[in-house]
Amino acid sequence: MAAARRRLSVGLGLAGAACALLGVCMLLVGPVIIKEQVVKNVRIDPGSMSFSMWKDIPVPFYMSVYLFEVLNPKETLQGAKPALNQRGPYVYREFRYKTNITFHDNDTVSFLEYRQLFFQPDMSNGSEEEHIVVPNILMMGAAVMMENLPNFVKFLLSGALAGLKQEAFMNRTVKEILWGYDDPLLDTINTIVPGLIPFKGKFGLFVELNNSNSGLFTVYTGMKNISRVHMVDSWNGLKKVNYWQSSECNMINGTAGEMWPPFMSPTSLEFYSPDACRSMTLVYEQSRKFEGVPTYRFVAPKTLFANGTDYPPNEGFCPCMQSGIQNISTCRLKAPMFISHPHFYNADPALVDAVEGLHPSKDQHALFLDVHPMTGIPMNCSIKLQLNQYIKRVSGIIQTGKIKPVVLPLLWFAESGSIEGAVLKQFYTNLVLIPSLLDYLQYIFLGLSVPLVISAAVLMARSQGTAAKKSPRHPTMQSKPPPSSETTPLLHDTATLSQDDAEA
């Protein structure tokens, strides 16, 4: 029985030691293996797991467009406050794909990304054939652009506008406003002021958006340095743009806005937006979970569109007006256009008060990006921007009436998408479930090693106690004393004492 216990204790001890060793190995080696797998699969390499996702984005993206209808155009022309009514959303399914993918020797890859948009009637609140009253964007823009020209030039334009029956506000379909309409005013303006609006064909707010690319991006592949993966090396061959008044504002920072380097910290992320003609920085707000996947949520800081007075680093984006809007005229043919958050969210209250019908709300109008920090891949996002036009009375152009200076919202849009379906399942399994199981297993092994080693020690102690009981002492029988020797005085003295005790 004692021998069996000894064998069992030895077995339990070995099992405990094995569990401890395995747990320690997993604790030390597991994170290294996971990191190597992440690095292998997030770099831009045809053999990586994320390459196909990067090349042809599988996430269903939707662009929801909201137009602002002017309810009182006649009164606004006479100097009244514009009253607006939000119409929409008009929803478009967005497909993105990359072409001209070219790898270079300096650890970079170049590409053109195209997007196609298809109207989704079932998801929209209204059709593209609906009519909406909006400012005559082309005419009002040209009027403000010509404000400082000689009076006779403005009189010429005013006469031409009268002949073309152009007015300050127009009633057009959603499709025309977004995707373009033929307007003889284009040729007329370019005849009076050559090069003022240097393009031909249809005029529309999104006329160049569909079936177009966002410019030639060259980004790092991460093959040599994973911390640089997806970071922009150049855009259209430029290391920095020349739209703005300072070197800092002209810098092309961050990524192209699709993915970021892995192993992110909860601080900030940057990307270059061709639509906004600038780099943007979002800041960490909170840690969340999307369908069980841990994410960092990044949002726009209040300083994103602040003017140079409220936030000096933005001085390079001026000339500025109130905080909360950014003048993009320098990259939009000098047209008096501004971008902002929808409904002037996070903007100077004076902008909201200048019109009627705006209701800024964080839940509805704040942009966000939910990014998986281990891989740098966005799981859920909604990028929201508003397009505004500065309109006013321009002396010499009678069509502008008595319109008071106002930054008038034209539309806002939200580009939203989230990983779902098979892609989400694969992502969750490979990058969340398996690492979590490995994490749990290492602590399970370490936890098991403790009771196993304790049980082995207890069984060993009991087996030794049982063996001692089976070999009792016989006090009447004395062992023969060892022979006397100079080298063994202690043993000799002990034997002598034992004999004395027995005689006693």
List the helices and strands and how they pair.
Blueprint: H1 2-42, H2 51-55, E1 61-70, H3 73-77, E2 84-103, E3 108-119, E4 131-135, H4 137-145, H5 151-163, E5 169-173, H6 174-179, H7 185-192, E6 212-220, E7 232-235, H8 247-250, E8 268-273, E9 278-290, E10 293-299, E11 325-327, E12 337-340, H9 349-353, H10 362-365, E13 368-372, E14 377-391, E15 406-418, H11 421-469, H12 489-503
Antiparallel strand pairs: 1-2, 1-15, 2-3, 3-6, 4-5, 6-7, 8-9, 9-10, 10-13, 11-12, 12-14, 13-14, 14-15
Helix pairs in contact: 1-11, 5-7
How does this model look, in words?
Helix 1 runs antiparallel to helix 11 and helix 5 (about 150-165) runs antiparallel to helix 7. With about 500 residues, the chain is of the alpha+beta class. About 35% of the residues lie in helices and about 25% in strands. Mean pLDDT is about 85; it is low at about 485-504. The longest helix is centred in the last third of the chain and has 49 residues, at about 420-470. The chain has helices at about 1-40, 50-55, 75, 135-145, 150-165, 175-180, 185-190, 245-250, 350-355, 360-365, 420-470, 490-504; strands at about 60-70, 85-105, 110-120, 130-135, 170-175, 210-220, 230-235, 270-275, 280-290, 295-300, 325, 335-340, 370, 375-390, 405-420. Strands 1, 2, 3, 6, 7, 8, 9, 10, 11, 12, 13, 14 and 15 form a 13-stranded antiparallel sheet that branches. A two-stranded antiparallel ribbon has the order 4-5.
